Amino acid sequence: MELGDSAVMESSNSKVFELRVKRSEPTLVGLAEETEKGPYYLSNLDQNIAVIVRTIYCFKSEDKGNEEAGEVIRNALEKVLVHFYPLAGRLGISSEGKLIVNCNGEGAVFVEAEADCVMEEIGDLTKPDPGTLGNLVYDVPGATNILEMPLFVAQVTKFKCGGFVLGLCLNHCMVDGIGAMEFVNSWGETARGVPLTVPPFLDRSILKSRTPPRIDYLHREFYEIKDISSTNKLYEEKIHYQSFCFEPEMLEKLKTKAKENGALEKCTTFEALSAFVWRARTKALRMLPKQETKLLFAVDGRPKFVPPLPKGYFGNGIVLTNSICEAGELVAKPLCFAVRQVQDAIKLVNDSYMRSAIDYFEVTRERPSLASTLLITTWSRLSFHTTDFGWGEAVLSGPVALPEKEVILFLSHGKDRKSINVLLGMPASAMKIFQQLMHI
Fold this sequence. Notes:
The protein is of the alpha+beta class. It contains eleven helices and 17 strands. The protein has helices spanning about 45, 70-85, 130-135, 175-190, 230-235, 250-260, 270-285, 325-330, 335-350, 350-365, 430-435; strands spanning about 1-10, 15-25, 25-30, 40, 50-60, 90-95, 100-105, 110-115, 150-160, 165-170, 240-245, 290-300, 320-325, 375-380, 395-400, 405-415, 420-425. The strands form three sheets. Strands 1, 2, 3, 5, 8, 9, 10 and 15 form an eight-stranded mixed sheet that branches. A six-stranded mixed sheet has the order 11-17-16-14-12-13. The chain is globular, with a radius of gyration of 22 Å.
């Protein structure tokens, strides 16, 4: 075994905890049966988000140890990859200069590891902590760009308490949150020997651009905002990561505040929380009144396409929508103003808008700009906790780190999953202000 990286984490009682992990040699997991070979098409919605997403799933059974965890999960991966065979391929570039998958059956990377502690010693798993949690996922050494990285990497880390953590590295160009959830849950079903509840629909050509392409909207999600507030300079400070838990009562309070004096007829939890966090972050970063600020978030396009995407669509079925306004207006006006911006952004998304976004990329090859932007990613509606490989449902699941400094993540929290954890990283001085603004 080789010694993996160790990580040091400061706990609340100021003791320093060091997570040490011993990894075995990585192996390649091929396909249990022969599958199609050759190029596999990725849609324009897949092209925009070729970033590696790292997540962990924690499992603990009262009456079942972790001795067989690695073997069971590895064997199930071999079988489930037959259904999701593009994940066993490698990324390439097509003649059009776009990302494409070469389905060569090279395989997913699999690593077994052992931690020198019990799972509880890791601390707060609801807060992204790349230093510590990074030991629970395997980054393939020597890969210098996205084309050199395998599409899928799994690590099973056994703890002394009998629990284990499954750490995954998955390229976002292959799948969005819904697709990832369906894949991991299918993997769990395979491990338990039950049929797949949602078999994957693999043909992404149904999202090809139109001929000729037709751009019917402005698509301000791609718009680059000038940073007149020197926010980028602020980010040279040490970044502090924090999670803020919004319990059901607080979320109701936010919705009530947004609707006070009859300003709004209705308001969802997502709309109220997104608006509240956008305003607070804008204040905390001390943006100048004339600074434009952009809110970006993904909308699930599966039911909004005409016809809707088939059940089990394997790929990215999400589209980014946006709202842009001046920072001064956003923070000076009541919460209902920000909520309206969010609502208008949601209303934008229909079949016509999504087809236009697909065509926009076809013509321009631009990617959404994150300058002076807040990008909200919502995992609170995804049931990753239902994943079960035979040790019961995951007791905890979540991200290892946030992909970009502009990203804020919403995660469901608590036994009934009615609370929402808001995870973000900010410059130290801005985080102090943001913490104060979180008191509703």
